[in-house]
Design goal:
mainly alpha; about 0% strand; about 80% helix
């Protein structure tokens, strides 16, 4: 039985996006933006679902960190310097850190746990987490949407099956490029911090 990939996206796209944004994020928000460009999903709903998934995922990790953070973070023996640096950043600039943590390479998952363990007030975290999720969803969904806009005209001319492989390759290239840029930026900040 042949199932059309477009039908799968229409049927399960929002659920997959929501689960993906709870767990990881960027890849799913970019894919959601591409699907919105192709008319398979609605741009506004993709934004809303990505925001909700991002908020829920980071809130869960925050409370995990609030109640079990110290024992969890002690397990990351090799990363104690980075955890200490993150704690200093949370104390000095909590607004920037909480909003920006989902953009920081290597801190996407552990960052909210560190924030929770830092005993930042939940009300403050929740407000900043919502602001960060809105910015994050707008940026990555829009990048996916614009990526779809740039390549869609020539993609439609390609063979039906080849088209999906090209989309996948372009999305993976975009995600890889963004991650590489974030990693290099984090390494530069680390070098500047150690000077």
């Amino acid at each position: 039985m042949h199932m059309d990939i477009n039908q799968l996206i229409v049927q399960y796209g929002y659920l997959a996006l929501f689960i993906g944004c709870i767990a990881e994020g960027e890849t799913f928000t970019l894919l959601g933006g591409v699907a919105a460009h192709e008319g398979l999903l609605h741009y506004g709903w993709v934004l809303l679902v990505a925001m909700l998934g991002g908020i829920l995922g980071d809130t869960g990790l925050f409370f995990l960190g609030r109640y079990y953070g110290e024992p969890i973070l002690k397990r990351f023996k090799k990363h104690q310097k980075q955890i200490a640096k993150a704690n200093r950043m949370i104390r000095r600039r909590p607004v920037l850190f909480v909003i920006g943590v989902r953009f920081m390479y290597g801190l996407r998952i552990v960052g909210p746990v560190i924030i929770g363990a830092s005993k930042l007030k939940p009300q403050k975290f929740l407000l900043l987490n919502v602001a960060g999720a809105i910015a994050w969803a707008l940026i990555f969904v829009s990048l996916g949407y614009m990526g779809g806009q740039i390549v869609a005209p020539w993609l439609h001319a390609l063979n039906h099956h080849l088209k999906y492989l090209v989309w996948l390759a372009l999305i993976l290239l975009l995600v890889w490029s963004v991650r590489l840029w974030l990693k290099r930026r984090a390494e530069r900040e680390k070098e500047e911090g150690s000077e």
